[in-house]
Amino acid sequence: MSKEKNKEGISVKKSEDISEWYSEVVQKAELADYSQVKGFMIIRPNAYGIWEKIQNYFDKYLKRKGVRNAYFPLLIPESFFKKEAEHAKGFAPELAWVEKNPNEEGERLGIRPTSETIMYDSYSKWIRSWRDLPLKINQWCNVLRWEVKQTRPFLRTREFLWQEGHCVYETKKECDKEVREILDEYKKLCEELLAIPVIAGTKTKSEKFAGAFYTTTIESLMPDGRALQMGTSHNLGQGFAKAFGIKFRDKNEKEQTPWQSSWGISTRLIGSVILTHGDDKGLVLPPNVAEKKVVIVPIMFKEKSGNIIKKAREIKKKLSEFDVFLDDREGYSAGWKFNEWEMKGIPIRIEVGPKDVEKKQVILVRRDNGKKEIVKESELKKKIPKILDDIQKNLFKKAKKFLDENIVEVKNYDEFKRAIKNRKFVSVYFSEDEKLEAKIKEETGATSSCVPFNQKGEGKCIFTGKPAKKILFARAY
Amino acid sequence: MSKEKNKEGISVKKSEDISEWYSEVVQKAELADYSQVKGFMIIRPNAYGIWEKIQNYFDKYLKRKGVRNAYFPLLIPESFFKKEAEHAKGFAPELAWVEKNPNEEGERLGIRPTSETIMYDSYSKWIRSWRDLPLKINQWCNVLRWEVKQTRPFLRTREFLWQEGHCVYETKKECDKEVREILDEYKKLCEELLAIPVIAGTKTKSEKFAGAFYTTTIESLMPDGRALQMGTSHNLGQGFAKAFGIKFRDKNEKEQTPWQSSWGISTRLIGSVILTHGDDKGLVLPPNVAEKKVVIVPIMFKEKSGNIIKKAREIKKKLSEFDVFLDDREGYSAGWKFNEWEMKGIPIRIEVGPKDVEKKQVILVRRDNGKKEIVKESELKKKIPKILDDIQKNLFKKAKKFLDENIVEVKNYDEFKRAIKNRKFVSVYFSEDEKLEAKIKEETGATSSCVPFNQKGEGKCIFTGKPAKKILFARAY
Asked: What is the separation, in whole angstroms, between the first and last Cα of chain A?
């Protein structure tokens, strides 16, 4: 995207055609570009910066928790995939294989769609006794899943970046506890960093991870009424351990099979930020994920531009701790710059004009609500962190309100269908049944999002009348 | 590697069989493991921690320099590789291809061995005018090169991790300047972080990067007399720009072809740390790349173990800013623990025994030279940073001495051959000649390492008698 084109702005309203709106924001805010290879994307610096904020936040947590980073090979032997039957079946359709070199011996190699199999082969060699447990390893890497569904930058691509944590425990209890602890941290990350409220729960059998004992998930609702899975944390049970021969001698020298977990978040989160907070002017960045939080735009008038630039630089210096930058490029009008930085979602704009220099003030504009205020120069340093904090909270509040208003409880299948049609997050008593879930998906396009945690009591399944928990359904990304 | 096996230590001396020694250190210090897939390695947490130190250091520099991180696809269309003829020829033998899905249209896809081609295809769309320059983008990623030579963890593997920077400039002058600036930073990284002295220079035509105008490099000499390329920074000239159609309008609205650079360092650096500093007891980590810098080992005697553990914890708390950890595991003897942490290269060991508790002192042991000293508890906090600093400097000094002593100037081909046989870094007046270089390689196994910078004057080529600069030759990793 050349800079000249940004001026044009987004050509459709978010409320009118969110799909086209999303494509335009992604391109014009220079977040991603389409690759010449179908289904692949180029993550541009403006988006990679968001990913770095997520990485920094979560990696610090991992280190506090004693999870250590490692790196396992990209290519996985075919036989590894086949060891755990459910896992093999789940990932088979999405695997990309490497062309075999005719001169080379050895198995056919697949490009990792996830690394359970290759990691657990190593784990079976590394783990001998209870002293080696818990084993907590994470890797930040790329994975490939040859999607046949329509792809969309960040939300569904054939290659994406993620972290995948893989832990091994002596007992189910310990594994359960940590699976949940990771999920809680993901929730915190979404809510505090990305300003996106999520609902935490478990996946139904139909939707759980291939090979898992159970899957916990955090789910958000996008403005178009589609649910987005933001992160998952699986208790893998002992199935992989048995398939890969991971055993340990306990304190009584008895051989035992350990429990395992795996968990991940991906660059998909960048897509959720764009969708949740963006508006008709483009991207809106929550301050906590904004690489640059404040832009200073000098309003130049020929005869006084020297003074104005001088003042703008002075302000930049004074505010340097807040990730401020100065747009002093020549040849672009102030209005053009306003549009550019609004498009790119910078949380705060500070305008410095000739009158402002005289009066020792600036004009401060918030990206989230467009509000302008005159701020005394002397108060800027105190005000900026407060406003950033307020923007962060305001974005979360707006998103939370949307989520709360769009969860609808339904009492029968007619209501269910209507609610899905109306793009709601549908809460329904449903006794988990894989066949019925498949039928619902076929007839309404909706899938089960999660069984929220902490439900008091049970109700009756609207289909079978059996005792059931509330399950959230929606069309999903 | 199970923990019990570490006790055994390294079975060969570094000076007797460095190749076997290296394999054992890599395995027993839990740095890497062989993958079931030939030529691939598993980077274990102890080694990945070194990579994280390198990443942190260099990424901060990149941000100061205004280089922004991004991520380009793993898979590159075949036609991209073919656009720049020299580059295509250079990488063709090492490319791995993805099996074509018969239902899918489009080109054959290769797994990136380096990303010039896919990045510059995007650059040709993103760059329009001088306002878009310089463009400075970096990515941290994995790359695949299907090596046919023998592989070795970190030093030569079919997959490795690296950073690749790719910049575009208006002028040759600017490009030259920044190519050198990056190389200088790589040198600083090697010397200050890894404690490895390097020689900076340019590559000869035979050894330059495929498609580059010229390549600058930093080279170190390993203890076995083989040169190791630690990092390269290329001026790519205008060849890629022409091949990929990257153009810009200058300030006079005239269309111009820009200049480009690319530069990278990789997980190979981990191998250089192992080789350079390791000894017969295992890994020796320079403090600046050690995730954990100090280990406290309590010497337990049954009747007093409570007091000792208490004291050890107290010391750990007091020294927390220095990345200290306490090995209070039961069921392992103190001697076993000493071996374990020596094997893993922890810079400082602090022993706390019953007598020490009484006398308010500890025994401090340096990993680099094995020296023991008694240190008063009250002086520990002041002494630790000084000792860490001294270890860092001492390791560099030792390596520098080795390098200096092993550079040999030769005056004719006989001396050259003898010096190479004696595992020296051979300095020779040589007028660059690709055919002659190929002959030397065939006859001696040596390749040109670099033409060192800042040479005063010229001499006469020992082969042709033509005016020539000094060039360093060695057998290379």
From this structure: 26
